[in-house]
Each structure stands twice: as C-alpha cells, then as structure tokens.
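Notes on consecutive records. When two proteins share a document, each keeps its own sequence and its own token line. Never mix them. Below: protein one.
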Amino acid sequence: MSSPVTIEQPQRVAIVHEWLTSMRGGEKCVEALCEIFPHATLFALLHIPGSASPRIERMPIRTSFIQHLPWAFEGYRYYLPLFPPAIRHLALEEFDCVISSHHCVAKGVRTRPDALHICYCHTPMRYLWDAYDEYFAKGRAGILTRAAMRSVRGYLRWWDVRTASNPRHYVANSENVRARIKRIYRRDADVIYPPVNTAFFSVERRRENFFLVVSALVPYKRIDLAIEACKRTGDRLVVVGEGTEARRLAALGGTTTEFAGRLSDEEIRDLYARCSAVLFTGEEDFGIVPVEAMASGTPVVALARGGALETVRDTVSLQTGILFREQTVDSLVGAILRLKETPFDPRKLREFALGFDRHVYQAKMRDYVARRWSEFRSGIAANPKQ
C-alpha cells in the first residue's frame, strides 16, 4: 500500500501585516498563520509590544521606520501617506514565500522575482474606496483631517491600484471582498473564510432579555441604529467596545442602553451566551461577531449587505438570524419584532457556525499555500528565466 503524498511547504516564509496594535479579526488571521508557519518571520509597519496574542508576540517581528516616528503608538494612522514607502522598504530578500495580510498597504511589499507572494485580502482600503465618506465626510472628521485626505487620496488610490499586480495570488476573506478585489484591482481571487475560535464558545440554557452589540465604536458600524431601535422598542441594549464614536453614542443612549466599554474575551463570551440576540448593524467585509454569536447558540439581527449575507441565514430551510434590508431604524425595528416571534434552535446555530472554525481556516490555508508553492516551483523549474 503506497503512503500518502506529502505536499511540500515553503521553508523561508515571511508574514506581512500592516500593524500589530490589538487583537481584532485581521490579527486573528495572522495568529492562525503563525501556527501554520511557526518558523516564519513576521513583518509590520508598527508593533506595540504586548498588544497582540502570546503566539504572535513569540514570533520574530521586524518593523518599519514608522515604529520610530514621534507619537507613532498613539497616532500611527496620521502617518497614512508614509505607509506606502514604509512597506516598500521592508527587507524581504531572504524569503522564498511571502504571505501578506492586507487591508491597507501590505500587498505593496517588495519581494524577490523568484519568490511566491500570496495576499490574504481582508479588503482593499475601505477609507479610500467604498467607505470614504463614512470616515471623512463633514461631521465624521475634523477640517484638517478632511483637507489632508483630499490632498493624498488620489496618490493613495493610484498606488493601491498600481501595486495590485504585486501578489501572484489573492485569497479573499469572503465572496463580498472577492467581488471588490475584482472591481478595484482587476484581479481574481479564491475565497477562504477567516478563522473563528468556535471552541471558545458554548451554548448555555440561561437567557436574559437584552440585546448585545460587540463592535468598535466607529462611524461605519452604525451603532446609532441599534441604540435608536432599542429606545423605540423599549429593549435593553448592552454595547461592548471603544472608539471615536463613544461620546456621540453615549449622548444618544438614554435609559435603555448600557455602555460596557472594553471587556475581556471571557466577559464577552458570557454576554453572547446570555443575550436574546446580537445586533449587527454595519456593512462588513466578513464579520466575525455573527459567527461568534451563533457559536454560542445566539441568533443575529444583521444588515443584509456585505459579509452578513454569507454568515447569517434567514431562509425557510435554515434560519440563524433575521436580516433587515435597509440601514434605517424602521427596518431594524421591524427585524427585532420579527425576531421576537421566531423560534431558534441553539444547536443548529452552533452547528452552522462550526463551518467557520479556525481549524477549517488553517487546513484550507495550509493546503492552499502548499498547492500554490508546488505550482510555483514547477513553473520556475520549467522556465528558469521567469
């Protein structure tokens, strides 16, 4: 009996991410990649020591000149115009395979001509393309920030498109982002959903009468819709998260809204397990929060746009939540009322969520990189001058 064929993985691997300042969805993808390639070297424009998970912090981490600029840890986003040259000056000559984790400039990294570059794309830069007004319209940003962005937006868009040819292959985190890559970069992409640590969550029998939002408090998340809808229905709402919108949202809150601020993963897990439903009111590239909720047996009320169309089911054959069509208070209120009349089976919600487990992501990424590496090396061998 013949032994199974082992597909060779690249040995000298670099993982490139924009910045390591917290543990959000992009960093959880990086963490999973670090487990697949434990001997890789991790590159970032900026790294705040201790801000990432222990697995990431154990990696050899190399940073750019952004790391050493004044007030970089607090205000690194103000250095956005410097990100393209900073990513281009990272030294990756020693690496045979580069995996960029991209939502800003990571795909623009320079590699050797005979190195394989795979881009795992969370999204093309949101604030340059589809969501510019949500970040920089009047009332969303100060006058100086708006003026600065108007002056550099054209250059950054040009650079973003010009460097779209850098990766040999794109992997999108959803069909939603795959379409965006095609429209903006004119490149095809494969789809591998990002990892969710479903094993961390469990289905509890105790439920309480409140709704939950877990989100960064930033404009495009539209947390204001959840606040206003719960004020209208009289339901208690717990909002977990921090961000630039915190003060404005607190002023809207009234007596029905509780702002919990930043909580530990364990505290959030407890809220997922006890709440009636999670409200997901923004348009996301993918959106890990709905999957975490469903892994806890909790239904989701989500805007029927973006990644939620791939993670929340609202059909006769399978229902894991309620989708609302318009990004308005009226539409959300209607969805909340429908949710209250709809029975959900927590076990089926969790079963659906298991399809997005981190082990599924890791197995698919491991196989994908190995297959692309084998194809790449075969092409080099057949055409040494390429």
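Protein two starts on the next line and is unrelated to protein one.
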Amino acid sequence: MTERQPTSPHPARWVPTLYFAEGLPFIATNVVSVMMYRNMGLSDTQTAFFTSLVALPWMLRALWSPFLEMFRTRKHFVVATQFLAGVCFGALALTLPLEGYLKYSLVLFALIAFNAATHDMAADGIYIGTLSAKQQAEYSGWQGASFNIATLFAQGGLVFVAGQLERALGVTTAWMIVMGVCGAILVALSLYHTAALPSGQVAGEVQSARQVLRTFREVVGTFFQKKYVWWGIAFIVLYRFAEGNAQKIVQLFLKAPREVGGMGLSTSEVGLAYGLMGAVAFVGGSLAGGYFAASRGLKGTLPLFCAAYNIPYVAYLLLALTMPSRFSVISVAVAAEMFGYGFGAVGLTLFMMQQIAPGPFKTAHYAFATGLMNLGMNLPSMVSGYLSDRLGYRDFFIWVMVATIPSFLVTWLVPLKEGEADAAPAPEARAAGA
C-alpha cells in the first residue's frame, strides 16, 4: 500500500509537472538563448560569454540553499518562483524590440536563473520531504523523463518553431513569441501547482538565521575535511573542460554559413538536429550509461565514462574538416556525440554521489559538487566564443580535442575511496548540469 498522508495529492499529479517546470527555464536560459542571441546579430564571442554569465546562479545556489531551512513549507517557494519566472519571460519578450534589448534581456535572464535555482532546491525539498523512500524510488524515473521532455520541448520544439516564425514574421517577433510561450507555460504551471502540490512542510523545529549560519559553517568545514577532497574537486572541475569549450559553439557552428566554415543549417534544422535528435540520443546515452554503471559500478569503469564523454567531440571536427551538405549526415554526427555525452555524464554524476556526497550532509555536499561541476563548464564557456571567432571553427574543434586531455589526466590520477565506489546507482538521471 502506498505510504503517504491521506490529504497529500497523488505524486502523479505533481511530479511530472514540477520537473517539467524545473527543466524549461534551465534549457531556455542555457541553450535556447544561444540561438536567439546569435540570430539577433551577436557574435560568437558575445553570445557564449553572455549566456554563460547569466547561468552563474546555478553554480552558486549552494550559498543560499541553507536559508530555505528558515521556512516551514516549500510549496509557496515553488509556486512563487514559477509565477515570477513566467512574468520575467513575458517581460523579456517585450524587451526584444527595444534598442537596448541586450542589457534588459540579460538582466531578466539573470533574474530567471536566480529564481529557477531557488525553485529547483525547493522542488527537490518537496520531493524528498513528502514522498516515502519507496515513492522516491518509484517516481525517480518520472523526474528524469519530465526534465528531458522539457529539454525536447524547448531545445527542439521551440527552436524549430522559432525558425519557422523567423521566415514568416522576422527574427525579433519570432523570439518574442517563443519567450512569451515559455512565460505563459510557467504562469499556468504556477496556478496549477497552487492546488496540485503538497505543502512540503518541514518536520520539527524551523531554524533561525543564526542556526542556519552555524550549520552552514559546519557543512563547509566538513566538506573540505573529506578524504581526497582536493582530488575530487579537480576531477569535478576538469571532467567537463572540453564540454565547456564546445557546448555554446556547437549550435553556432551548425547555424553559421558554409563560407565561414559552418554547416549552414537553418534555425529549424538546428532545432531538429541538435534539439530533437541530439536530445533523444542524450537520453538514450544516459539510460545506457546508468544501466552499465548499475552492473559494473564506478571502480574500473571511470576511464570508459571519460572516453565516452570526450572522444565523440571528434564528430564536430570531422564535420568541420569534411563539410558535408547532407542534413542526415550532420544529424548522425550530432546524435553520436550527444549519445556519448549522455553516457559519459553518468560517470561524473556517480562520482559526485558516491565519492563526494557521503557523510552527515549528503544533500548540501552534493549541491556543492554540482556547483563546482557547473563552474568547471561555465568558465571555459565564457571565452569559447572568443576562441571560436579567433581560430575559426575547424581550428576551434582541434582545440576542443586538445581540451579533453585534462579530463583524461585527472580521471587517470584521481583516487577512489573504498566501499562507496562499488555501489550501484539508479539508471535514471536528469540532464547534466541541472
């Protein structure tokens, strides 16, 4: 018999919509915005830098996560942040025709990122605090599926639609509609969750600000006392170094005219190749990596995960060298890289769960680890556009292959703590970096 409070809404009513609402602003801010800004005339340098800069709150969210403990319920945080995100997307849409649209839209994207990072922590708090251990396991697959549906919807569907609208209505109007749709969906979800969400009420005594600060100092202190912690930090930061260089540029490379070394795809074709086929391949790779890790564990397989994560970036180098014109060939190359990305990301997630998180503050230490992970990706992302503009796409992807070397080195050198390394993970996972 399902273990839950009689008055608590059934998890099927709110888990899928909650994690769709978590995925939509993340993908819109980190991925969809890249195509929007490039189509509105920004250079690769500007696009990569600005879209990486506004994503900083997802790296830093652990700094204000303890203060959520001062409040007895989580539901009002989730509903309020979803509504605010919807309003911000609507305001962002209205700024796009303005002369100073860039500064206005960047401020709004930064606010959306801070808001969404807070939402994610409160949403996870409701999930963990409301569901029994059995239910948490039962609905963990729904979490990942819902987040990835949001990825397919935004990265594939919305970009495809934007491309169609660009032809009919112009670039600015097209992206106004797309951002307005994001806003409308989030406002609608906030209204739905007003009734559908459980309260996420915290049991026991609610902490004061002084207690929160004392606990936070203890959390930070115990994190840096962990065995091999500095090796662990190096691994987490460097594992995604090549991805940090490539992630923002891939869409720009696919969209760029062939005369400058790009693939010359339309916006809609980028949505299909990268946002739809690539995202499906990523989910397949994630599931395959999860089941592989469940049967083999982390010890002895980490180099395989690293290879799967990094070597497929050669697909973009081959595209830049051979310049194929067939959409099917380009799509297969993108899908191959994204499958390896999904497979290899499991190794990093597993490392953080088993080597970094264990201890008295598992949730907080895992949040620290994910912040470091995003830092390792976002810092190279900020300069990737500059490198791409200076080197050209062919030489840039040669650099990306060189940038895989730190990941291989730290994977080879990092020591694993005995005991935790052989634990089998669940095969489901959300998109990397969420």
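For the record: The domain at 10-207 is CATH 1.20.1250.20 (Growth Hormone; Chain: A;).
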